[in-house]
Write a structure and sequence with these properties.
The chain has 149 residues and is an all-alpha fold. 77% of the residues lie in helices and 0% in strands. The chain has helices at 8-37, 42-73, 76-100, 104-130.
């Protein structure tokens, strides 16, 4: 498996898929909890929850497109925009959602989302630093002089 040194497209796609998969049980738990406690607001809460899930899919879809574009074009501008989007995601996931959620599944989703955001930010920063050049790891090469045996 290749090293993920500037693979913002791959990691942002992994982030999208992970959040969408974890979002389904979160959405169901939210709908069931509301319908169980307050059946009069069940349908309206279900609609709002589904709209929120679709908005989340749109947000992470934009991030995935930005990650792909930044990697394909090796563009500093797209990488900086991607970092901005991921910082917003990080603030929402770790500082707004995580401390206030009582649901352990929602806490786990926020934690995973935050970790994936940090990973994408790290890779995007590497793209910003490298610019149009390739990102390579320096190797320690020991060479002998011609006279040594």
């Amino acid at each position: 498996m290749p090293r993920l040194t500037q693979q913002t497209a791959v990691i942002s796609m992994v982030q999208f898929i992970t959040i969408m998969i974890l979002g389904v049980p979160n959405t169901l738990v939210n709908i069931i909890a509301t319908c169980h406690s307050d059946s009069s607001n069940c349908v309206s809460n279900m609609i709002v929850t589904i709209i929120f899930y679709l908005m989340t899919a749109g947000w992470f879809g934009i991030i995935m497109i930005l990650g792909y574009t930044a990697q394909k074009k090796r563009s500093r501008q797209f990488a900086i925009i991607l970092i901005g989007f991921e910082l917003i995601t990080l603030v929402v996931a770790w500082y707004i959602d995580f401390p206030h959620d009582t649901n352990w599944l929602a806490k786990a989703t926020s934690l995973i989302d935050g970790l994936l955001s940090v990973w994408v930010i790290y890779l995007a920063m590497r793209l910003v630093i490298a610019g149009n050049k390739r990102i390579v790891k320096k190797k320690n090469i020991i060479t002998r002089s011609r006279g040594a045996r």
